[in-house]
Write a structure and sequence with these properties.
This protein is α/β, with parallel strands linked by helices and 367 residues long. It contains 12 helices and 16 strands.
């Protein structure tokens, strides 16, 4: 029985999908891996491994490019935890706007027989603002960003956004959102800004002093994406001068803790029973589809390609993309220097001949 290693605790619902496989915590010869937050950069990769599925959207804990060169496909689960993250973002806006975090901390310090009087006397220091009628700027309108936009609209907010990769189909989900051409336009109008983009070298620390200068005074910023998107030193300075009223971050580091008007939450975005179940099921389905059919769905380092079974035999070829077809008669796609081919035939497929093709990394006989 083929083994699939779990590098983190994974919802048992994955077992229901992967019947016929042995899900284990340790293995010397796993065919695939399920992972959440485990950092795989220094993990010794077994030669048997052909796939990794991340039960979540972000994959910065996985060396995706290196794995592609080894013929290891990496999947993620876009949208599976979107509702959970959306709810945390909405909660974060209310938390910051109503000064709930410092108010609770203050209330916990009250003692004596006249607590009610102390509450009435001191509550004015924590008076907040409402979110209804305010403008929310959404940076990144993927599955999570769109859900946040829809909920914010329902709460009476005006929603604007920026996403240079937003498809026409996705735009139809949020016709009420005014899409801006630049992030600077969002900065200029927003009372709240929420981040929903991946961490890339270009975006690391992009929210810095130059960005803050373009924002409204007293803006509230929510970061449920990645902590490294924000320059914390510049954020603290912006808070000190009143440019930023509060910063809620779900990916805090040491520099965020015990700091004025920075509200850290311990990576709770996808930490709900429902989200963990959804991510586990989707990740398991992706692995099953790839192992048993060779189909690639929701990969971050391979071209996505999935075809119905149309013949008695199927083989797949992973190769270095040289800009031209590799296997005659195969369905092929390429991405980031990797070409993926699915070949079907009612006759036996010569696997050894496929292995001899130029630039081949891995060949698999599927059935």
């Amino acid at each position: 029985m083929a083994e699939i290693i779990k590098l983190n605790s994974i919802s048992p619902k994955a077992n229901d999908v992967l019947k016929g496989y042995k899900l284990v915590d340790e293995s010397s010869k796993p065919i695939a891996a399920l992972v959440r937050s485990f950092v795989m950069n220094d993990w010794e990769v077994p030669s048997s491994l052909i796939a990794v599925a991340r039960a979540g959207a972000g994959v910065n804990n996985i060396p995706c490019a290196d794995y592609a060169k080894k013929g290891i496909v990496v999947f993620n689960t876009p949208g599976a935890n979107a509702n959970a993250v959306k709810e945390l973002v909405i909660a974060s806006m209310l938390l910051a706007a109503r000064n709930i975090f410092p108010a609770i901390s203050w209330a916990q310090t009250l003692t004596g027989d006249d607590v009610k009087k102390q509450v009435e006397k001191g509550k004015g220091a924590y008076a907040g603002t409402e979110i209804m009628g305010k403008t929310l700027g959404v940076l990144g309108l993927g599955a999570i960003g769109r859900k946040v936009a829809i909920s914010a609209k329902a709460l009476g907010m005006t929603v604007i956004g920026y996403d240079p990769y937003l498809s026409e189909l996705a735009k139809k989900e949020i016709p009420f959102v005014e899409i801006k051409e630049t992030m600077a336009e969002v900065y200029k109008e927003a009372d709240f800004i929420t981040l929903h983009m991946p961490l890339t070298p270009e975006l690391k620390g992009f929210l810095n002093k130059d960005a803050f200068k373009k924002m409204n005074n007293g803006v509230i910023i929510i970061n449920a994406a990645r902590g490294e998107l924000v320059n914390i030193a510049d954020m603290k300075e912006a808070i000190e001068v009143g440019k930023v009223r509060a910063y809620v971050v779900d990916f805090p580091d040491g520099d965020c803790l015990n700091s004025k008007n920075i509200i850290p939450t311990p990576h709770l975005g996808a930490s709900t029973e429902e989200a963990e179940d959804n991510c586990a099921v989707m990740a398991a389905q992706e692995l099953k589809e790839y192992i048993e059919l060779g189909n690639v769905v929701n990969s971050v380092n391979f071209p996505n390609i999935a075809i119905e079974k149309n013949a008695a035999h199927r083989a797949t070829v992973i190769s270095v993309d040289k800009g031209e077809r590799l296997v005659d008669g195969a369905v092929e796609r390429a991405k980031d220097g990797i070409r993926y081919s699915i070949l079907e035939s009612d006759s036996d497929i010569d696997i050894n001949a496929l292995k001899k093709l130029d630039g081949v990394i891995m060949v698999r006989s599927i059935f």
